[in-house]
């Protein structure tokens, strides 16, 4: 951590404390705490160092300044090349939040976009319903979250794939930027995504090449570069066949 980052972090911590207590306690030079707000915002001097802070209201659609600092501290040493970043994301140990949402943000997200999230039990129930429908239609069955097996027999699909449902935390968006997928597991509110991996390099049923690729799916995400929280497309793994 650089001296500037450390200095900014110290000012934010002081600001956060002052914004959470009664106003008018600004013993720190150049710290201003208005009476009607809570979230710390730091302005900078000409040299880029922290100079003053104020407290503003929380916007569910944007990260707070403190969260933006969290992004800076947690991403400065991540891979910058897209190929390296995609490999880095494949490690389950790296699938952890870069930004910690506040309780207020979580509540507002669930209130405004609750239909986007499901608990694991709800996801399993929805897949059971899909499985029953497949049986009624004499179609191949679906799979449960966290499990991996053939989606359907090789006679029904050119390139059979191993599938799993995952609650992704970090992903790449359609512009090849790292984003955080909003997940609230402590409230049993998560977004689930189907991931596929080809079983064969060539089709077992016809003349075709099987290849792992990406497809875009919609998700409620945090754009780490801009600090905006909104719906956007992220890449997930897919298996396709080429003739």
Protein described:
- With 243 residues, the protein is α+β, with helices and mostly antiparallel strands.
- It has 2 domains: 3-57, no CATH class; 81-242, Cystine Knot Cytokines, subunit B, CATH 2.10.90.
- It has helices spanning 3-19, 65-75, 82-90, 103-113, 120-136; strands at residues 39-44, 50-56, 149-150, 161-166, 170-172, 178-181, 193-198, 209-223, 228-242.
- Strands 5-6-8-9 form a 4-stranded antiparallel beta sheet, with helices on one face. Strands 3-4-7 form a 3-stranded antiparallel beta sheet, with no helix packed on it.
- A hairpin with a 5-residue loop joins strand 5 and strand 6.
- Helix 1 (3-19) runs antiparallel to helix 2.
The shape, in one word, is: globular
Could you say how many structural domains there are in total? Answer: 2
Number of strands: 9
Neighbour order of strands in the largest sheet: 5-6-8-9
